[in-house]
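User: I'm new to structure prediction. If I give you an amino acid sequence, what do you actually give back? Let's try with this one:
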Amino acid sequence: MNNDTLAELAEGQAPASFLCPVSQELMRDPVFTCDGHTFERSAIERWLRKHGTSPLTGEQLSNDGLIPNVILRGLISELLERKPELLTAGQTCLLYT
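Assistant: Good question. You get back a string of structure tokens that encode the predicted 3D arrangement of the chain. For your 97 residues, that looks like this:
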């Protein structure tokens, strides 16, 4: 984690790395794509149904497999236990364990 992320955590804010680059929402089920980037599962699944490319790089992905990012999921879960108000209105804490 970089210093900005640590400072955001110390202030009880959701770091930018906890937000999905596609939906810009706090991730609840973060997954890696084959190029190593992390996204919210539902957002990247929607993206991949329409595109075969990375939404961040625009490059073709060699496969559409998704791997759970369990470390990030755990960090987000811990943050939400301390700061449940970070969830937007209407969101529920559905972190997969």
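You can read the tokens as a compact description of the fold. Here is one thing that stands out. Residues 89-97 have pLDDT under 50 and may be disordered.
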